[in-house]
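Protein record

Derive C-alpha cells from sequence
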Amino acid sequence: MDGSIAYPQQIAGLEVGQGAARDFYIYILDDMIENVSVSAPALVPLFRSDQQLRLLGVLFAGAEEELTIGELAARAGIAQATASREVARLEEHGLVVTRAIGRNRLVRPNWRLPWAPELRSILVQTVGVLGRLGEALSEVQGVDCAFVFGSWAARHQGEPGPFPNDVDVVVIGTAPLRAIRRACRMVELGLRVDVNPVVIDRQGWDSPTSEPFIAELKAQPLVPIPFEAERDI
C-alpha cells in the first residue's frame, strides 16, 4: 500500500502548489459530504449513496487487488450498471483508479490519497471485515466479545506482509461453534473471504493460567470486533 502524500501539481490545466492541491482535495471531500444520501448507513454519513459506500468498502476494506466492474458489483451486491455509474463518479473525485484491459475495466483504490489510510479504517470498521463480522455476531446469543487475530490482525496493525485471503476470529462466550460458523458464512459470501472462527469460554479466556493456545492468542495482535450494541467485555 502506498500511503505517501502526493498531491497533483496540475488541476484543470493549471499549475498549482502543494497547498492549493491539498485544498482541492479538501474541497472534493466537502462536496461528497454535501451530497449525503438518506440511504447511506448512519455510521458513515459521508457518501452520496449506499451503493457508493458498498463499492468503497469492497475496494478499500477488502483484499488489495484490481477488480473488474462485474466482480466489484457482485461483491458489493449491486447491479453492474449501478457499479459502473458510481465508479465513474468515484474516479472523477479521485478516490479510485481504473484502466482498460480489452473490454474489461479494472478498478482499484487510490492509495495515493493523503487520507486513504483513514478512509480504509472507517470502511473496515463499518462495511468491511470488522463491521460485517460485528453485525453478524451481534445476532448470535452467547457472544460476549470477539477479536480478529492472525495475519489479518497483523496487517491491520501495520505489520508488513501480503494481505491474507482469510480471517481468523476468536469469540469469547458460550455461543455454539455451529452458530458462529453460520453467522460467519454470511460474511464469507458477502466479502468473498474465508473466516476461521474459534470459541473460548469466558472463564478460560480470563484465567491467569491460560492454556498454551489462549496464551499464544493473547500474545499476538488482536483487533476487537465492534458490535452494534454495547457489550460488557
Q: What stands out?
A: The chain has two domains: 10-125, 129-224. Residues 1-45, 229-233 have pLDDT under 50 and may be disordered.
